[in-house]
Amino acid sequence: MGNAVEDKTHPPILLSLSALTDAGRVRKNNEDSFLLANFDRETAGLKELACHTVGPKGSLLAVSDGMGWAEGGELASRSTEGAVFQWLSENWGRKPLVTSLGAALERSIHMANETVLRKARENPKLFGMGATILLAGIVGDRLYLRWVGDNRCYLFRNNAMARLSEDPSLPAPVQD
Predict the structure, then answer these.
(1) Of 1, 6, 7, 126, the residue nearest 67 (C-alpha)
(2) Most-buried pick from 65, 67, 150, 164 (CB within 10 A)?
(3) Regarding predicted confidence, which is higher, 92 or 1?
(4) What is the pTM of this model?
């Protein structure tokens, strides 16, 4: 992760997080998965990172949801997050092409897509499997968002909530 630079002009960001998923009313099984990573630590789970200060290498929050109409949604969402985390752990800040966290998040999604496609090709029963993903990377005083699908990201600040992501499955609002 080596080349990420801490921004000393802003106070550190303290993350206080919790996560919960639910199968909902339609499906029997839950195809959601989530990930929290602190790139300043080698490994840690959600319990250890639920409240932590974002370090110089940054933190990652992710949520993924398997596509319910296809077999393997659970596998797709877990594989997507696993591939994103692995690629970022190995590459973020190490190569000139991935010195921007936004670019690194985008590249990690492409690598995750390749992983899911490979798994589907290896097992014909998993044909068509896929997952949505939303990544929020924080480094310094910056938040970088990347997403594929209809996961939503909201910012809650000063008792107000604002939606940061766009849902591609909804029609665009009519402009007058």
Answers:
(1) 126
(2) 65
(3) 92
(4) 0.79
